[in-house]
Design goal:
Radius of gyration: 13 Å
Strand order of the largest sheet: 2-1-3-4-5
CATH superfamily: Response regulator
Distance between the termini: 16 Å
Shape: globular
Length: 121
């Protein structure tokens, strides 16, 4: 079982991801803002294995959240999710960063595969 942090401001999608990932056997923590996501990392008694981050949040930009997560947990595997196309390799992240991208909208099976791929890296 993996611990997964999910940060997304779309409440129905957040609930769907929580339900689906929990059914897959993961321990899932959900937050609706970037600041809440960073607080969850800082206050967690156990480390997260994967973070699924919405790239567009009302309280902070995706790069700000991504940088904040990587500063706090440099080895954390991160799945960035957005309705806009993104080339993760063009972001100039450090080589140790384990970051992948999942284009919205996606099916639950696509989320499962993306998380499994990150966990295997």
């Amino acid at each position: 079982m993996s611990r997964i942090l999910v940060v997304d401001d779309e409440a129905p999608l957040l609930k769907l991801m929580e339900t689906y990932l929990t059914r897959q056997g993961h321990d899932v923590v959900c937050r609706a803002t970037g600041r809440e996501g960073l607080e969850a990392i800082e206050q967690s008694s156990a480390p997260f294995d994967v973070a699924v981050l919405d790239h567009w949040l009302p309280d902070m930009g995706g790069m700000e959240l991504l940088s904040g997560v990587l500063d706090r947990c440099p080895g954390l595997r991160i799945l960035v999710s957005s309705g806009s196309l993104m080339d993760v390799e063009s972001l100039g992240l450090p080589p140790a960063a384990r970051v992948a991208f999942l284009q919205k909208p996606y099916l639950p099976g696509m989320l499962t595969r993306a998380v499994a791929d990150l966990l295997q890296r």
